[in-house]
Amino acid sequence: MNPDLLLYSSLVFLATILGGLVALVRQWSDARLHLFVSFGAGIFLGTVFLHLLPEALSESHSHQVPYLVLTGFLLIFLIERFLFTRGDGGYDHSHRVISITAFLGLSVHSLIDGFGLAVGSHSEELGNVIFASIVAHKASAAFALCSLFVLAKIKRSTAISWLVLFSLVTPIGAFLFTPLFADGGHEMMAALTGLTAGSFLYIATGVLLPEVFHTRELRWWKLALLLCGIVIVLLIGHGAAGH
User: Fold this and answer.
1) What per-residue confidence (pLDDT) applies to 160?
2) Which residues are within 8 A (CB) of 215 and not within 5 positions of it... i.e. 6 or more apart?
C-alpha cells in the first residue's frame, strides 16, 4: 500500500467531513441558510465553467462534450420537473430530489478526483498540488452539498450519514478503481465529466439561484458570497495549473 496515497486519502476524508459539518452543526435561520446556499451556487457555477468543462474539452472527442452537457442539464430538469413532482408538499420534495442529484453528481466527480489522487501519489511535487486542489474542492463541495440537505429538511442524522459516504468516495476511487481505467479511461471520464457539468449547471441556475434571490433580503451579501464561491474555485484551478 502506498503510504503517500493513504495519507492523502485520509486527509481528504477529514477535510470533506469538516467542510460538510459546518453547514450541519446548528439550526440555521432561512436568511442565514440562503447565504450558505448562495456560496454553494458559486461553487457549482465555478466548478462547471472553470473546472469541469475545460477538463472534459481537453480529452479526445471533445466535440461530443456540448451534447453531453445538454443531456446532463435536461436529464436533471426532467427528473425534477416531471418524474418527481408532487401537488402538495412539493417544495421540500423538489429540494430533496435536487440534493440527492447533487450528491450523485458530486460523487461521480469525486471518484474522478480519486484517480487523480492515485496518479499524484507517485510524484511528490505533483501529488502535493493535486492534493491541495482536491482538499479545497472537496471541503467546499461538502459544504454546498450539506447546505442543500438542510434546505431539503433532511434529518441531520441522515445528512451526516450521506456526508460520511460522500467523504469516502475519493479514497475509494484512489484505491480501488484507478486500474479499471488504465486503458480507454480518458474518454469515459470525459463523458462523465460532461454529464456532471450539465447537471451542476441546472442545479445552480434552475434551483439554487432562484431559491436564493427570490427575495431582496440580504441580496448584496448573497451576491458577494456567490462571487466568493466562484473565486475560490478559480483560485483552486490557478493553484493546480501553476504547477
Assistant:
1) 94
2) none
Grid cell in block for residue 65:
462534450
> At a CB cut-off of 8 Å and minimum separation 6, what does 82 contact?
none
Distance CA 227, CA 124 (A): 33
Which of 39, 55, 177 minimizes the C-alpha distance to 107? 177
| 27: DSSP letter | -
User: Cβ(186)–Cβ(64) under 8 Å?
Assistant: no
Q: What is the pTM of this model?
A: 0.67
Give the residue among 199, 198, 229 at the shortest CA–CA distance from 212. Answer: 229
Residues ≥6 apart with Cβ < 8 Å to 129: 120, 239, 240, 243
- Report the C-alpha gap between 175 and 98 in whole angstroms: 29
All cell numbers assigned to 233 = 474555485
- Grid look-up 486519502 returns 9
Distance CA 222, CA 241 (A): 29
Which pLDDT band, with edges at 50, 70 and 90, does 144 fall under?
A: confident
Question: 20-64, pLDDT tens digit by residue?
Answer: 998 888 777 777 778 877 888 888 888 889 888 887 787 656 688
Q: What is the identity of the amino acid at 175?
A: F
Q: Which parts of the chain fold into alpha helices (H)?
A: 3-21, 30-47, 53-57, 65-78, 90-120, 124-151, 156-172, 185-202, 209-212, 219-241
